[in-house]
Structures are given as C-alpha cells and as structure tokens.
Amino acid sequence: MATILYARVSTAEQNLSHQKAQAEAAGFVIDEVLADHGVSGVSTTLAERPEGKRLFDMLRRGDTLVVRWVDRLGRNYQDVTDTIRHFMRKGVVIRTVINGLTFDGATKDPMQEAVRDALIAFMAATAQAQAEATKEAQKAGIAAARENIAAYRGRKPSYDRDTLERVLERHRSGTGTPTIAKELGLSRGAVRRIIQDPAAALAALARWAVRGA
Predict the structure, then answer these.
(1) Which GO terms of the molecular function aspect are on file (predicted)?
(2) Neighbours of 104 (CB within 10 A)
(3) CA separation (Å) from 71 to 27, 46, 128, 135, 146?
(4) Where on the phi/psi map is residue 174: left (φ > 0), alpha (ψ -120 to 50), or beta?
(5) Which long-range contacts (CB under 8 A, 24 or more apart) does 121-127 make?
(6) 28 and 79 part of one domain
(7) For residue 90, which of 64, 108, 109 has the smallest C-alpha distance?
(8) Which end of the chain has less Cβ packing within 10 Å, N or C?
(9) Which range marks the domain in which residue 161 is found?
C-alpha cells in the first residue's frame, strides 16, 4: 500500500516543495510525489494532465492519495466529484492536508454516506466558486486599468496568491494575527486586510497581475 502526494502547481507563485513540506508536517509519510506544472484546474480535468492521468493507472486498492486540498485535483465541480468517487470505488483513500479530511468507500451506512458525499460536493463547489471569484476579480482589475492605470493599481500587495491562501488557512485553524504575520513575513495590517476582505485581497492581486489558478 502506497501513499501518493499529488500536487498541481499552476503558477510561479505556487510551490511544490511547500505542498510536500505541509503534508510531511501533517504526519504523512510520502512514498511518491506526482505533480503537474503550469496547468489550470478549471480548463483541464485531472485525467487530461500528464501526472494526473498516471494516478488513474497507478493507484490500487488500499493506497492513499494525499492532496493539499481538493482544489489541487481541480476547480471544476463535476470533475472533482467524479474523480473522488472513482477512486473511492477502487478502494483508494483520499486525504487532505488542510483540515485533515478523509474520504473512502469503507462505510456502508446510508447516513454516513450521505454526510460524506455532501461534504465532497461542498468542497468541490467551493473550489470552483473560488476560481470563478478570482477570474471576476481579475476582469474587474483589468477593466479598471484601462480606465486609469495609474490610479487603479494602488500599492503593490506584499503577498502572492499562495501566501494569501496560507493566511486564510492559518486564520481558519484559529491562529492569531500576530503569529500569522510573523510566520509569513507580513505586516499585521496586511494580514488583517486579507482576513477581513479576501475578495478585495484577490482583486489587489489581479490588479497587479499576480495570478493564481
């Protein structure tokens, strides 16, 4: 039985070593790492990516597939839900680093199955919604730039997309603003702005063309 970490690194701001370090810090012993670089989770399904396609061939019953969060599998609701259910039917366990969630096909209790499937659907929908929100924020930033490029950009953000996500992760886990700021090398004000209005923080990145996926 193998433990495989799958990572999708879609931009220069995201980092494969960070995803692997996060998994190991969470207690996972990784046997192999597969990663697709420079691909969108919106326009390409997991099976269309070179390393993602390998997962369908190599994962066997009893294996564990580790992902940082479900958005690494993709940002398309139908693709993500279909993928997770496919692997569960094969007897593969899917585990997330963030929030430590586990999805498998072991339970036969209908209520537990319903709760599990609802959670999978919610997380997949959230991943797609975040991608769509980012796209809209980028469009808004570009439109504003055409009207007044000097005024619309404002101060360049002190964070990138990966750092923004890490701020929100740490905040959700109950970590205080001073600790987050110290860990990530940001000012407390920057951390507070991200936490108070994530959409505005994403828009600021879009205005400076710091893109995530």
Answers:
(1) DNA binding; DNA strand exchange activity
(2) 15
(3) 21, 11, 8, 15, 31
(4) left
(5) 121/77, 121/81, 123/69, 123/70, 123/80, 124/70, 124/77, 124/80, 124/81, 124/84, 125/77, 127/41, 127/69, 127/70, 127/71, 127/74, 127/75, 127/77, 127/80
(6) yes
(7) 64
(8) N
(9) 153-207
Residue 169's CATH number: 1.10.10
Instruction: List, in sequence order, every residue forming a beta bridge with 36; answer none if it has no partner.
Output: 8
* Tokens read off for 153: 């950009």
List % helix, strand, coil for the chain (3-state, nearest 5). Answer: 55, 10, 30
Rounded Cα–Cα distance for residues 203 and 48 (Å): 29
138 is written with which tokens?
């980028």
Q: How far apart are CA 168 and CA 162, in angstroms?
A: 10
Asked if 165 and 120 sit in the same domain, the reply is no
Q: Which are the catalytic amino acids?
A: 10
Digit-coded pLDDT (tens) for 12-42:
556 788 888 889 998 999 999 999 987 776 7
Give the confidence band of 141 by pLDDT, cuts at 50, 70, 90.
low
DSSP-based three-state secondary structure for 34: strand
Does residue 174 share a domain with residue 69? Answer: no
pTM: 0.59
Q: Give yes or no for a contact between 94 and 76, defined as CB atoms under 8 angstroms apart.
A: no
Question: In this predicted model, what pLDDT tens digit does every residue of 146-186 receive, in sequence order?
Answer: 555 545 556 788 888 888 888 988 888 889 999 999 999 99
| Amino acid symbol at 24 | E
